[in-house]
Amino acid sequence: MYGYQITQRAKELTQGELEMTEGALYPLLHKLEAEGMITSEIQKINGRDRKYYLLTEKGKKQQVTQEEEMKNYLFNLNTIFNI
Prior knowledge:
Layout: H1 3-13, H2 22-34, E1 38-45, E2 48-55, H3 57-81
Antiparallel strand pairs: 1-2
Protein backbone atom coordinates (compact mmCIF):
# COMPACT_ATOMS: atom_id res chain seq x y z
CA MET A 1 0.00 0.00 0.00
CA TYR A 2 1.03 3.61 -0.33
CA GLY A 3 1.01 6.10 2.55
CA TYR A 4 -2.41 7.67 2.14
CA GLN A 5 -3.93 4.23 1.54
CA ILE A 6 -2.43 3.03 4.84
CA THR A 7 -3.99 5.92 6.77
CA GLN A 8 -7.40 5.28 5.23
CA ARG A 9 -7.23 1.52 5.83
CA ALA A 10 -6.34 2.06 9.50
CA LYS A 11 -9.30 4.42 9.86
CA GLU A 12 -11.60 1.94 8.13
CA LEU A 13 -10.46 -1.09 10.15
CA THR A 14 -10.87 0.77 13.44
CA GLN A 15 -14.17 2.34 12.42
CA GLY A 16 -12.67 5.80 12.79
CA GLU A 17 -11.17 5.19 16.23
CA LEU A 18 -7.61 5.43 14.91
CA GLU A 19 -6.94 8.44 12.74
CA MET A 20 -3.36 8.23 11.59
CA THR A 21 -2.06 11.41 10.01
CA GLU A 22 0.33 11.27 7.11
CA GLY A 23 2.65 13.53 9.11
CA ALA A 24 2.94 10.84 11.77
CA LEU A 25 3.03 7.94 9.34
CA TYR A 26 5.84 8.92 6.98
CA PRO A 27 8.58 9.29 9.63
CA LEU A 28 7.59 5.83 10.90
CA LEU A 29 7.74 4.37 7.39
CA HIS A 30 11.18 5.90 6.85
CA LYS A 31 12.39 4.44 10.17
CA LEU A 32 11.03 0.98 9.32
CA GLU A 33 12.67 1.14 5.91
CA ALA A 34 16.03 2.13 7.46
CA GLU A 35 15.73 -0.85 9.82
CA GLY A 36 15.03 -3.24 6.94
CA MET A 37 11.49 -4.03 8.10
CA ILE A 38 9.90 -2.68 4.92
CA THR A 39 10.98 -1.87 1.41
CA SER A 40 9.50 0.61 -1.00
CA GLU A 41 9.03 0.89 -4.71
CA ILE A 42 7.82 3.77 -6.81
CA GLN A 43 5.18 3.16 -9.46
CA LYS A 44 3.76 5.66 -11.89
CA ILE A 45 -0.05 5.73 -11.57
CA ASN A 46 -2.02 8.07 -13.85
CA GLY A 47 1.14 10.02 -14.55
CA ARG A 48 2.01 10.46 -10.86
CA ASP A 49 4.69 8.70 -8.86
CA ARG A 50 3.29 6.67 -5.98
CA LYS A 51 5.53 5.04 -3.37
CA TYR A 52 4.33 1.62 -2.24
CA TYR A 53 5.57 -0.05 0.94
CA LEU A 54 5.99 -3.80 1.44
CA LEU A 55 7.01 -5.91 4.42
CA THR A 56 10.35 -7.66 4.10
CA GLU A 57 10.94 -11.15 5.52
CA LYS A 58 12.51 -9.47 8.55
CA GLY A 59 9.40 -7.29 8.87
CA LYS A 60 7.07 -10.28 8.62
CA LYS A 61 8.95 -12.08 11.41
CA GLN A 62 8.78 -8.96 13.57
CA GLN A 63 5.05 -8.66 12.90
CA VAL A 64 4.45 -12.22 14.12
CA THR A 65 6.54 -11.58 17.24
CA GLN A 66 4.75 -8.34 18.08
CA GLU A 67 1.30 -9.83 17.49
CA GLU A 68 2.13 -12.63 19.93
CA GLU A 69 3.42 -10.14 22.51
CA MET A 70 0.22 -8.08 22.16
CA LYS A 71 -1.98 -11.17 22.56
CA ASN A 72 -0.10 -12.09 25.75
CA TYR A 73 -0.38 -8.54 27.04
CA LEU A 74 -4.14 -8.43 26.41
CA PHE A 75 -4.60 -11.88 27.96
CA ASN A 76 -2.77 -10.72 31.10
CA LEU A 77 -4.81 -7.52 31.31
CA ASN A 78 -7.99 -9.54 30.96
CA THR A 79 -6.81 -11.90 33.71
CA ILE A 80 -6.04 -8.99 36.06
CA PHE A 81 -9.32 -7.16 35.54
CA ASN A 82 -11.57 -10.20 35.60
CA ILE A 83 -10.46 -11.70 38.90
